Amino acid sequence: MKRLGYLLKLDFHENLKAFIWTSVTMLLVYLFFFWWAHIIGIPLEYYSLSKELYSPEHIEMVTNAQCGSVGRFGSVAMYFCFIVIASQLYGKEQKKQNRTALLMLPATNLEKFLARWLYMIGFSVVAGILTFIVADVLHMIWLSSAGRPIIAASKYFFDTWSEDKVLRGVSVNSFFILIHSVYLFGGIYLRKHHFAITSLFLVIFGSLFVKIINSLEPHLFLGHRSYVLCILHICGIILFTWLSYKVFCRWQLTDRKNANL
Amino acid sequence: MIEVKDLKFKYPCQKEWVFDGFNLQMEENRIYGLLGKNGTGKSTLLYLISGLLRPAAGSVLSDGIETFSRNVEVLQEVYLVPEEFDFPSISLEKYVKLHAPFYPRFSRETLESCLKDFELTPDIHLGALSMGQKKKVLMSFALASNTRLLLMDEPTNGLDIPSKSQFRKAVANNMSEDRMIVISTHQVHDVESLLDHIIMLSQRELLLNASIQDIMDRYIFEYRQPSEMGDNVLYAEPSLQGNAVIAKRSEGEKETQVNLELLFNAVTKGLVK
User: Fold this and answer.
1) Which residues of B touch A110 (CB under 8 A)?
2) Distant-in-sequence contacts of B255-260, Cβ < 8 A, 24+ apart
3) Domain shared by B45 and B116, yes or no
4) For the whole model, what pTM was predicted?
Protein backbone atom coordinates (compact mmCIF):
# COMPACT_ATOMS: atom_id res chain seq x y z
CA MET A 1 0.00 0.00 0.00
CA LYS A 2 2.81 2.33 0.97
CA ARG A 3 4.69 1.46 -2.23
CA LEU A 4 1.55 2.14 -4.26
CA GLY A 5 1.52 5.63 -2.75
CA TYR A 6 5.19 6.12 -3.63
CA LEU A 7 4.50 4.99 -7.19
CA LEU A 8 1.54 7.33 -7.55
CA LYS A 9 3.65 10.20 -6.26
CA LEU A 10 6.41 9.29 -8.69
CA ASP A 11 4.03 8.98 -11.66
CA PHE A 12 2.46 12.30 -10.80
CA HIS A 13 5.79 14.13 -10.60
CA GLU A 14 7.33 12.50 -13.65
CA ASN A 15 4.28 13.14 -15.83
CA LEU A 16 3.38 16.54 -14.44
CA LYS A 17 4.30 18.34 -17.67
CA ALA A 18 2.05 16.09 -19.79
CA PHE A 19 -0.66 16.47 -17.16
CA ILE A 20 -0.52 20.28 -17.26
CA TRP A 21 -0.27 20.46 -21.06
CA THR A 22 -3.18 18.09 -21.62
CA SER A 23 -5.33 19.92 -19.06
CA VAL A 24 -4.53 23.33 -20.56
CA THR A 25 -5.22 21.99 -24.07
CA MET A 26 -8.57 20.58 -22.98
CA LEU A 27 -9.48 23.84 -21.26
CA LEU A 28 -8.70 25.72 -24.47
CA VAL A 29 -10.71 23.20 -26.51
CA TYR A 30 -13.74 23.68 -24.25
CA LEU A 31 -13.37 27.47 -24.33
CA PHE A 32 -13.17 27.25 -28.10
CA PHE A 33 -16.45 25.31 -28.11
CA PHE A 34 -18.10 28.07 -26.06
CA TRP A 35 -16.72 30.73 -28.37
CA TRP A 36 -17.85 28.76 -31.42
CA ALA A 37 -21.37 28.25 -30.06
CA HIS A 38 -21.79 31.93 -29.21
CA ILE A 39 -20.25 33.46 -32.30
CA ILE A 40 -20.70 31.00 -35.16
CA GLY A 41 -22.73 27.92 -34.23
CA ILE A 42 -25.81 29.41 -32.56
CA PRO A 43 -25.58 33.20 -32.68
CA LEU A 44 -28.15 35.42 -30.99
CA GLU A 45 -30.03 35.85 -34.30
CA TYR A 46 -30.87 32.14 -34.16
CA TYR A 47 -34.61 31.39 -33.71
CA SER A 48 -35.25 35.12 -34.26
CA LEU A 49 -38.09 34.58 -36.77
CA SER A 50 -40.55 33.70 -34.06
CA LYS A 51 -39.26 35.92 -31.29
CA GLU A 52 -37.90 39.38 -30.78
CA LEU A 53 -34.09 39.34 -30.85
CA TYR A 54 -33.48 40.97 -27.49
CA SER A 55 -36.46 39.64 -25.55
CA PRO A 56 -35.41 37.83 -22.33
CA GLU A 57 -37.17 34.61 -23.46
CA HIS A 58 -35.35 34.61 -26.76
CA ILE A 59 -31.97 35.24 -25.14
CA GLU A 60 -32.58 32.47 -22.61
CA MET A 61 -33.64 30.04 -25.34
CA VAL A 62 -30.54 30.78 -27.41
CA THR A 63 -28.22 30.58 -24.38
CA ASN A 64 -29.77 27.24 -23.45
CA ALA A 65 -29.24 25.96 -26.97
CA GLN A 66 -25.66 27.20 -26.94
CA CYS A 67 -24.94 25.52 -23.60
CA GLY A 68 -26.60 22.31 -24.74
CA SER A 69 -24.49 22.24 -27.86
CA VAL A 70 -21.25 22.90 -25.96
CA GLY A 71 -22.19 20.28 -23.34
CA ARG A 72 -22.68 17.61 -26.00
CA PHE A 73 -19.55 18.52 -28.00
CA GLY A 74 -17.64 18.79 -24.73
CA SER A 75 -18.62 15.31 -23.63
CA VAL A 76 -17.44 13.87 -26.95
CA ALA A 77 -14.14 15.75 -26.59
CA MET A 78 -13.84 14.49 -23.01
CA TYR A 79 -14.30 10.89 -24.13
CA PHE A 80 -11.74 11.38 -26.87
CA CYS A 81 -9.35 12.77 -24.25
CA PHE A 82 -10.02 9.70 -22.03
CA ILE A 83 -9.16 7.21 -24.75
CA VAL A 84 -6.08 9.13 -25.86
CA ILE A 85 -4.83 9.18 -22.26
CA ALA A 86 -5.54 5.42 -21.99
CA SER A 87 -3.69 4.61 -25.20
CA GLN A 88 -0.73 6.79 -24.22
CA LEU A 89 -0.56 5.49 -20.66
CA TYR A 90 2.79 3.77 -21.28
CA GLY A 91 3.82 5.93 -24.25
CA LYS A 92 6.87 7.23 -22.39
CA GLU A 93 8.01 3.69 -21.66
CA GLN A 94 8.43 2.87 -25.36
CA LYS A 95 11.79 4.58 -24.90
CA LYS A 96 14.40 2.14 -23.59
CA GLN A 97 15.69 4.45 -20.85
CA ASN A 98 12.25 5.07 -19.35
CA ARG A 99 11.29 1.42 -19.64
CA THR A 100 14.43 0.42 -17.73
CA ALA A 101 13.60 2.92 -14.99
CA LEU A 102 10.02 1.65 -14.64
CA LEU A 103 10.80 -2.06 -14.74
CA MET A 104 13.71 -1.77 -12.30
CA LEU A 105 11.67 0.05 -9.66
CA PRO A 106 11.32 -2.16 -6.61
CA ALA A 107 7.56 -2.70 -6.70
CA THR A 108 5.38 -5.54 -7.93
CA ASN A 109 4.03 -5.55 -11.48
CA LEU A 110 0.54 -5.24 -10.02
CA GLU A 111 1.51 -2.16 -8.00
CA LYS A 112 3.12 -0.54 -11.05
CA PHE A 113 0.10 -1.31 -13.22
CA LEU A 114 -2.42 -0.23 -10.61
CA ALA A 115 -0.57 3.00 -9.82
CA ARG A 116 -0.47 3.97 -13.49
CA TRP A 117 -4.13 2.99 -13.91
CA LEU A 118 -5.18 5.10 -10.93
CA TYR A 119 -3.04 7.92 -12.21
CA MET A 120 -4.82 7.62 -15.57
CA ILE A 121 -8.21 7.91 -13.85
CA GLY A 122 -7.08 11.00 -11.93
CA PHE A 123 -5.47 12.49 -15.00
CA SER A 124 -8.63 11.84 -17.06
CA VAL A 125 -10.91 13.36 -14.42
CA VAL A 126 -8.82 16.51 -14.15
CA ALA A 127 -8.07 16.92 -17.86
CA GLY A 128 -11.47 15.80 -19.13
CA ILE A 129 -14.02 16.80 -16.49
CA LEU A 130 -12.59 19.44 -14.14
CA THR A 131 -11.33 21.54 -17.04
CA PHE A 132 -14.86 21.54 -18.48
CA ILE A 133 -16.22 22.75 -15.15
CA VAL A 134 -13.54 25.49 -15.10
CA ALA A 135 -14.39 26.46 -18.68
CA ASP A 136 -18.07 26.51 -17.76
CA VAL A 137 -17.42 28.73 -14.72
CA LEU A 138 -15.45 31.13 -16.95
CA HIS A 139 -18.31 31.01 -19.44
CA MET A 140 -20.84 31.79 -16.71
CA ILE A 141 -18.71 34.74 -15.57
CA TRP A 142 -18.76 35.99 -19.14
CA LEU A 143 -22.54 35.47 -19.36
CA SER A 144 -23.03 37.46 -16.19
CA SER A 145 -20.80 40.29 -17.39
CA ALA A 146 -22.66 40.35 -20.72
CA GLY A 147 -25.99 40.61 -18.90
CA ARG A 148 -27.14 37.24 -20.22
CA PRO A 149 -28.98 34.64 -18.16
CA ILE A 150 -26.52 32.43 -16.30
CA ILE A 151 -26.93 28.85 -17.53
CA ALA A 152 -24.48 26.02 -16.77
CA ALA A 153 -23.38 23.90 -19.71
CA SER A 154 -22.14 21.23 -17.25
CA LYS A 155 -25.72 20.02 -16.87
CA TYR A 156 -25.81 19.08 -20.58
CA PHE A 157 -22.24 17.79 -20.40
CA PHE A 158 -23.11 15.25 -17.71
CA ASP A 159 -26.57 14.52 -19.14
CA THR A 160 -24.95 12.98 -22.20
CA TRP A 161 -23.66 10.14 -20.02
CA SER A 162 -26.74 9.56 -17.95
CA GLU A 163 -29.77 7.66 -19.10
CA ASP A 164 -33.28 7.67 -17.64
CA LYS A 165 -33.39 3.90 -17.55
CA VAL A 166 -30.79 2.33 -15.25
CA LEU A 167 -30.13 -0.68 -17.47
CA ARG A 168 -29.67 1.41 -20.59
CA GLY A 169 -27.39 3.71 -18.61
CA VAL A 170 -25.25 0.78 -17.48
CA SER A 171 -25.22 -0.65 -20.99
CA VAL A 172 -24.15 2.62 -22.62
CA ASN A 173 -21.53 3.45 -20.00
CA SER A 174 -20.13 -0.09 -19.90
CA PHE A 175 -19.80 0.11 -23.68
CA PHE A 176 -17.72 3.26 -23.37
CA ILE A 177 -15.59 1.75 -20.60
CA LEU A 178 -15.08 -1.29 -22.83
CA ILE A 179 -13.80 0.92 -25.66
CA HIS A 180 -11.57 2.66 -23.12
CA SER A 181 -10.12 -0.68 -21.93
CA VAL A 182 -9.44 -1.71 -25.55
CA TYR A 183 -7.41 1.49 -25.95
CA LEU A 184 -5.60 0.73 -22.69
CA PHE A 185 -4.71 -2.73 -24.02
CA GLY A 186 -3.60 -1.23 -27.36
CA GLY A 187 -1.35 1.21 -25.50
CA ILE A 188 0.34 -1.59 -23.57
CA TYR A 189 0.53 -4.21 -26.32
CA LEU A 190 1.60 -2.09 -29.27
CA ARG A 191 4.98 -0.43 -29.58
CA LYS A 192 4.02 2.30 -32.04
CA HIS A 193 0.93 4.10 -33.34
CA HIS A 194 -1.19 2.78 -30.44
CA PHE A 195 -4.09 5.09 -31.06
CA ALA A 196 -4.35 4.65 -34.84
CA ILE A 197 -3.98 0.85 -34.81
CA THR A 198 -6.41 0.39 -31.92
CA SER A 199 -8.93 2.64 -33.68
CA LEU A 200 -8.59 0.57 -36.85
CA PHE A 201 -9.00 -2.64 -34.86
CA LEU A 202 -12.11 -1.24 -33.22
CA VAL A 203 -13.65 -0.15 -36.49
CA ILE A 204 -13.09 -3.55 -38.11
CA PHE A 205 -13.98 -5.81 -35.18
CA GLY A 206 -16.60 -3.45 -33.78
CA SER A 207 -18.55 -3.42 -37.04
CA LEU A 208 -18.17 -7.19 -37.34
CA PHE A 209 -19.47 -7.61 -33.79
CA VAL A 210 -22.44 -5.30 -34.40
CA LYS A 211 -23.24 -7.16 -37.62
CA ILE A 212 -23.19 -10.50 -35.81
CA ILE A 213 -25.34 -9.21 -32.92
CA ASN A 214 -27.86 -7.70 -35.32
CA SER A 215 -28.02 -10.85 -37.41
CA LEU A 216 -28.86 -13.00 -34.41
CA GLU A 217 -32.50 -13.90 -33.93
CA PRO A 218 -34.05 -11.72 -31.20
CA HIS A 219 -35.35 -14.82 -29.37
CA LEU A 220 -31.73 -15.83 -28.73
CA PHE A 221 -31.52 -12.95 -26.24
CA LEU A 222 -34.67 -14.30 -24.52
CA GLY A 223 -36.07 -10.80 -24.63
CA HIS A 224 -33.19 -9.39 -22.59
CA ARG A 225 -30.97 -7.89 -25.27
CA SER A 226 -29.81 -5.02 -23.04
CA TYR A 227 -28.90 -7.43 -20.22
CA VAL A 228 -26.92 -9.64 -22.62
CA LEU A 229 -25.08 -6.66 -24.10
CA CYS A 230 -24.34 -5.34 -20.64
CA ILE A 231 -22.83 -8.67 -19.61
CA LEU A 232 -20.82 -8.83 -22.84
CA HIS A 233 -19.47 -5.32 -22.24
CA ILE A 234 -18.49 -6.11 -18.66
CA CYS A 235 -16.82 -9.38 -19.76
CA GLY A 236 -14.96 -7.37 -22.42
CA ILE A 237 -13.80 -4.80 -19.85
CA ILE A 238 -12.49 -7.55 -17.55
CA LEU A 239 -10.83 -9.39 -20.45
CA PHE A 240 -9.02 -6.37 -21.88
CA THR A 241 -7.95 -5.04 -18.47
CA TRP A 242 -6.64 -8.49 -17.51
CA LEU A 243 -4.86 -8.87 -20.86
CA SER A 244 -3.31 -5.41 -20.40
CA TYR A 245 -1.96 -6.44 -17.01
CA LYS A 246 -0.70 -9.79 -18.31
CA VAL A 247 1.12 -8.15 -21.24
CA PHE A 248 2.58 -5.58 -18.85
CA CYS A 249 3.94 -8.41 -16.64
CA ARG A 250 5.71 -9.88 -19.67
CA TRP A 251 7.23 -6.59 -20.79
CA GLN A 252 10.95 -6.82 -21.49
CA LEU A 253 13.54 -4.20 -22.20
CA THR A 254 13.70 -5.25 -25.84
CA ASP A 255 10.57 -6.71 -27.32
CA ARG A 256 9.38 -7.46 -30.81
CA LYS A 257 9.43 -4.70 -33.40
CA ASN A 258 5.72 -3.98 -33.21
CA ALA A 259 4.43 -5.69 -30.10
CA ASN A 260 5.47 -5.61 -26.46
CA LEU A 261 5.80 -9.36 -26.08
CA MET B 1 24.51 -15.13 -5.21
CA ILE B 2 23.77 -15.04 -8.94
CA GLU B 3 23.40 -18.33 -10.77
CA VAL B 4 23.01 -18.54 -14.52
CA LYS B 5 22.04 -22.06 -15.55
CA ASP B 6 21.91 -23.39 -19.12
CA LEU B 7 20.85 -19.98 -20.32
CA LYS B 8 19.51 -19.64 -23.84
CA PHE B 9 18.65 -16.22 -25.09
CA LYS B 10 18.19 -14.43 -28.38
CA TYR B 11 16.58 -11.13 -29.24
CA PRO B 12 13.25 -11.22 -31.06
CA CYS B 13 13.65 -11.13 -34.83
CA GLN B 14 17.26 -12.34 -34.58
CA LYS B 15 18.40 -15.73 -35.75
CA GLU B 16 21.60 -15.97 -33.72
CA TRP B 17 21.54 -16.98 -30.08
CA VAL B 18 23.31 -14.52 -27.82
CA PHE B 19 23.62 -17.23 -25.18
CA ASP B 20 23.20 -20.92 -25.80
CA GLY B 21 23.63 -23.16 -22.77
CA PHE B 22 25.54 -20.49 -20.86
CA ASN B 23 26.45 -21.10 -17.20
CA LEU B 24 27.90 -18.72 -14.65
CA GLN B 25 28.01 -18.25 -10.92
CA MET B 26 28.81 -15.02 -9.12
CA GLU B 27 29.26 -14.40 -5.44
CA GLU B 28 29.13 -11.53 -2.97
CA ASN B 29 32.09 -9.50 -1.81
CA ARG B 30 33.53 -9.27 -5.30
CA ILE B 31 33.79 -6.69 -8.03
CA TYR B 32 33.39 -8.46 -11.34
CA GLY B 33 34.67 -7.06 -14.60
CA LEU B 34 32.60 -8.17 -17.55
CA LEU B 35 34.71 -7.85 -20.67
CA GLY B 36 34.21 -8.77 -24.28
CA LYS B 37 34.15 -7.44 -27.79
CA ASN B 38 31.13 -5.51 -29.12
CA GLY B 39 28.06 -7.67 -29.51
CA THR B 40 29.23 -10.52 -27.30
CA GLY B 41 26.35 -10.06 -24.89
CA LYS B 42 27.84 -8.10 -21.98
CA SER B 43 24.94 -5.69 -21.66
CA THR B 44 22.48 -8.48 -22.45
CA LEU B 45 23.88 -10.50 -19.55
CA LEU B 46 23.43 -7.50 -17.24
CA TYR B 47 19.83 -7.09 -18.40
CA LEU B 48 19.16 -10.80 -17.88
CA ILE B 49 20.63 -10.62 -14.38
CA SER B 50 18.51 -7.58 -13.57
CA GLY B 51 15.35 -9.27 -14.89
CA LEU B 52 14.82 -6.90 -17.80
CA LEU B 53 15.00 -9.74 -20.31
CA ARG B 54 13.39 -13.16 -20.24
CA PRO B 55 15.53 -16.23 -21.05
CA ALA B 56 14.24 -18.51 -23.81
CA ALA B 57 15.42 -21.46 -21.73
CA GLY B 58 17.42 -22.03 -18.58
CA SER B 59 17.35 -19.64 -15.66
CA VAL B 60 18.94 -16.64 -14.07
CA LEU B 61 18.57 -16.80 -10.30
CA SER B 62 19.32 -14.23 -7.65
CA ASP B 63 19.53 -15.98 -4.28
CA GLY B 64 17.41 -18.76 -5.75
CA ILE B 65 14.69 -16.46 -7.16
CA GLU B 66 14.11 -16.16 -10.89
CA THR B 67 15.11 -12.59 -11.77
CA PHE B 68 12.54 -12.17 -14.56
CA SER B 69 9.75 -12.61 -12.01
CA ARG B 70 10.75 -9.06 -10.96
CA ASN B 71 9.98 -9.96 -7.41
CA VAL B 72 10.07 -6.93 -5.06
CA GLU B 73 12.55 -8.61 -2.73
CA VAL B 74 14.91 -9.12 -5.66
CA LEU B 75 14.40 -5.65 -7.13
CA GLN B 76 15.06 -4.02 -3.76
CA GLU B 77 18.50 -5.60 -3.84
CA VAL B 78 19.44 -4.79 -7.45
CA TYR B 79 20.44 -1.47 -8.91
CA LEU B 80 21.29 -1.15 -12.59
CA VAL B 81 23.28 1.80 -13.89
CA PRO B 82 22.55 1.60 -17.62
CA GLU B 83 24.77 3.11 -20.28
CA GLU B 84 21.95 5.37 -21.42
CA PHE B 85 19.41 6.81 -19.04
CA ASP B 86 17.12 9.77 -18.58
CA PHE B 87 16.64 11.95 -15.54
CA PRO B 88 13.47 13.94 -15.03
CA SER B 89 13.97 17.67 -14.95
CA ILE B 90 13.65 18.05 -11.19
CA SER B 91 15.99 18.88 -8.32
CA LEU B 92 18.19 16.11 -6.92
CA GLU B 93 16.47 16.63 -3.56
CA LYS B 94 13.09 15.87 -5.15
CA TYR B 95 14.51 12.90 -7.07
CA VAL B 96 15.86 11.40 -3.87
CA LYS B 97 12.56 12.01 -2.07
CA LEU B 98 10.69 10.19 -4.83
CA HIS B 99 13.07 7.26 -5.41
CA ALA B 100 14.82 6.59 -2.11
CA PRO B 101 11.73 5.12 -0.34
CA PHE B 102 11.86 2.16 -2.75
CA TYR B 103 15.25 1.10 -1.35
CA PRO B 104 15.01 0.07 2.28
CA ARG B 105 18.72 0.54 2.99
CA PHE B 106 19.15 3.81 1.16
CA SER B 107 21.72 6.01 2.89
CA ARG B 108 21.66 9.76 2.52
CA GLU B 109 25.13 9.97 4.09
CA THR B 110 26.52 7.67 1.40
CA LEU B 111 24.84 9.76 -1.28
CA GLU B 112 26.34 12.94 0.09
CA SER B 113 29.79 11.41 0.46
CA CYS B 114 29.69 10.03 -3.13
CA LEU B 115 28.52 13.37 -4.48
CA LYS B 116 31.38 14.97 -2.59
CA ASP B 117 33.81 12.47 -4.14
CA PHE B 118 32.48 13.52 -7.54
CA GLU B 119 32.74 17.20 -6.59
CA LEU B 120 28.98 17.71 -6.76
CA THR B 121 26.64 19.25 -4.22
CA PRO B 122 23.23 17.90 -3.16
CA ASP B 123 21.42 21.12 -4.12
CA ILE B 124 21.72 20.58 -7.88
CA HIS B 125 18.96 20.50 -10.48
CA LEU B 126 19.04 17.39 -12.68
CA GLY B 127 17.85 19.27 -15.74
CA ALA B 128 20.87 21.55 -15.64
CA LEU B 129 23.57 18.85 -15.63
CA SER B 130 25.84 17.60 -18.40
CA MET B 131 25.69 13.91 -19.35
CA GLY B 132 28.85 13.15 -17.37
CA GLN B 133 27.49 14.91 -14.28
CA LYS B 134 24.20 13.05 -14.61
CA LYS B 135 26.13 9.81 -14.70
CA LYS B 136 27.96 10.76 -11.53
CA VAL B 137 24.64 11.53 -9.82
CA LEU B 138 23.16 8.21 -10.92
CA MET B 139 26.22 6.30 -9.72
CA SER B 140 26.10 8.13 -6.39
CA PHE B 141 22.42 7.23 -6.04
CA ALA B 142 23.17 3.63 -7.01
CA LEU B 143 25.91 3.32 -4.39
CA ALA B 144 23.70 5.02 -1.79
CA SER B 145 20.86 2.58 -2.47
CA ASN B 146 23.03 -0.04 -0.72
CA THR B 147 21.62 -2.85 -2.81
CA ARG B 148 23.45 -6.14 -2.57
CA LEU B 149 23.85 -6.31 -6.33
CA LEU B 150 25.05 -3.33 -8.30
CA LEU B 151 25.23 -3.65 -12.07
CA MET B 152 27.04 -0.99 -14.10
CA ASP B 153 27.06 -0.83 -17.87
CA GLU B 154 29.99 1.21 -19.20
CA PRO B 155 30.11 3.39 -16.07
CA THR B 156 33.12 5.43 -17.13
CA ASN B 157 31.80 6.37 -20.58
CA GLY B 158 31.35 10.12 -20.70
CA LEU B 159 33.41 10.76 -17.57
CA ASP B 160 36.40 13.10 -17.76
CA ILE B 161 39.86 12.00 -16.58
CA PRO B 162 39.61 13.19 -12.93
CA SER B 163 36.10 11.71 -12.66
CA LYS B 164 37.40 8.27 -13.54
CA SER B 165 39.60 8.15 -10.47
CA GLN B 166 36.77 9.69 -8.42
CA PHE B 167 34.59 6.84 -9.66
CA ARG B 168 37.13 4.23 -8.53
CA LYS B 169 37.38 5.91 -5.14
CA ALA B 170 33.60 6.04 -4.69
CA VAL B 171 33.15 2.38 -5.64
CA ALA B 172 36.03 1.19 -3.46
CA ASN B 173 34.75 3.19 -0.47
CA ASN B 174 31.29 1.69 -0.75
CA MET B 175 32.16 -1.93 -1.33
CA SER B 176 31.03 -4.22 1.45
CA GLU B 177 31.15 -7.92 2.28
CA ASP B 178 27.55 -8.59 1.31
CA ARG B 179 27.73 -6.60 -1.90
CA MET B 180 28.49 -7.73 -5.44
CA ILE B 181 29.34 -5.26 -8.17
CA VAL B 182 29.38 -6.18 -11.84
CA ILE B 183 31.00 -3.70 -14.20
CA SER B 184 30.65 -4.21 -17.92
CA THR B 185 33.16 -2.11 -19.81
CA HIS B 186 35.43 -1.59 -22.77
CA GLN B 187 37.50 0.95 -20.85
CA VAL B 188 39.58 -1.65 -19.05
CA HIS B 189 42.20 0.83 -17.85
CA ASP B 190 39.53 2.80 -15.97
CA VAL B 191 38.55 -0.10 -13.76
CA GLU B 192 41.68 -2.27 -13.77
CA SER B 193 42.63 -1.53 -10.18
CA LEU B 194 39.06 -2.04 -8.92
CA LEU B 195 38.26 -5.49 -10.19
CA ASP B 196 38.87 -8.67 -8.31
CA HIS B 197 37.33 -11.09 -10.78
CA ILE B 198 37.33 -11.14 -14.57
CA ILE B 199 34.67 -12.61 -16.82
CA MET B 200 35.43 -12.51 -20.54
CA LEU B 201 32.72 -13.26 -23.03
CA SER B 202 32.94 -14.21 -26.63
CA GLN B 203 30.08 -15.17 -28.96
CA ARG B 204 27.98 -17.56 -26.86
CA GLU B 205 30.83 -18.72 -24.63
CA LEU B 206 32.74 -17.86 -21.55
CA LEU B 207 36.37 -17.28 -22.50
CA LEU B 208 37.69 -16.60 -19.03
CA ASN B 209 36.22 -16.71 -15.55
CA ALA B 210 38.98 -16.18 -13.03
CA SER B 211 39.82 -14.06 -10.03
CA ILE B 212 42.54 -11.44 -10.33
CA GLN B 213 44.48 -13.31 -7.65
CA ASP B 214 44.29 -16.51 -9.67
CA ILE B 215 45.50 -14.69 -12.79
CA MET B 216 48.34 -13.09 -10.83
CA ASP B 217 49.30 -16.49 -9.43
CA ARG B 218 49.49 -17.99 -12.90
CA TYR B 219 50.94 -15.24 -15.08
CA ILE B 220 53.43 -12.42 -15.11
CA PHE B 221 52.69 -9.17 -16.90
CA GLU B 222 55.76 -7.16 -17.77
CA TYR B 223 57.78 -5.40 -20.45
CA ARG B 224 60.70 -7.26 -21.96
CA GLN B 225 63.26 -6.38 -24.58
CA PRO B 226 63.32 -8.68 -27.65
CA SER B 227 66.50 -10.29 -26.36
CA GLU B 228 64.85 -11.26 -23.02
CA MET B 229 61.74 -12.99 -24.35
CA GLY B 230 62.41 -16.53 -23.04
CA ASP B 231 60.41 -19.78 -23.38
CA ASN B 232 57.68 -19.00 -20.86
CA VAL B 233 56.18 -16.16 -22.91
CA LEU B 234 52.57 -16.90 -23.85
CA TYR B 235 51.72 -13.67 -25.57
CA ALA B 236 53.55 -10.51 -26.51
CA GLU B 237 52.70 -7.21 -28.08
CA PRO B 238 55.23 -4.63 -29.25
CA SER B 239 55.13 -1.34 -27.38
CA LEU B 240 57.26 1.76 -26.87
CA GLN B 241 58.75 0.30 -23.67
CA GLY B 242 59.65 -2.96 -25.40
CA ASN B 243 57.37 -5.98 -25.70
CA ALA B 244 54.37 -6.13 -23.38
CA VAL B 245 54.43 -9.75 -22.32
CA ILE B 246 52.30 -12.33 -20.57
CA ALA B 247 54.46 -15.13 -19.33
CA LYS B 248 53.88 -18.21 -17.20
CA ARG B 249 54.75 -17.48 -13.60
CA SER B 250 57.06 -19.93 -11.85
CA GLU B 251 56.85 -20.63 -8.13
CA GLY B 252 58.54 -17.99 -6.02
CA GLU B 253 58.51 -15.44 -8.80
CA LYS B 254 57.27 -11.96 -7.87
CA GLU B 255 53.59 -11.18 -8.55
CA THR B 256 52.88 -8.48 -11.10
CA GLN B 257 49.83 -6.32 -11.66
CA VAL B 258 47.42 -7.63 -14.29
CA ASN B 259 47.48 -5.78 -17.59
CA LEU B 260 43.84 -6.25 -18.56
CA GLU B 261 44.16 -5.05 -22.11
CA LEU B 262 47.00 -7.45 -22.78
CA LEU B 263 45.16 -10.27 -21.05
CA PHE B 264 42.03 -9.54 -23.08
CA ASN B 265 43.94 -9.68 -26.36
CA ALA B 266 45.69 -12.89 -25.36
CA VAL B 267 42.47 -14.56 -24.23
CA THR B 268 40.50 -13.55 -27.34
CA LYS B 269 43.31 -15.00 -29.48
CA GLY B 270 43.07 -18.22 -27.48
CA LEU B 271 46.65 -17.99 -26.20
CA VAL B 272 45.71 -17.74 -22.53
CA LYS B 273 42.85 -19.70 -20.95
Assistant:
1) none
2) B255/B216, B255/B217, B256/B216, B256/B220, B256/B221, B256/B222, B257/B192, B257/B216, B257/B221, B258/B192, B258/B198, B258/B212, B258/B215, B258/B216, B258/B219, B258/B221, B259/B221, B260/B33, B260/B35, B260/B188, B260/B189, B260/B192, B260/B195, B260/B198
3) yes
4) 0.85
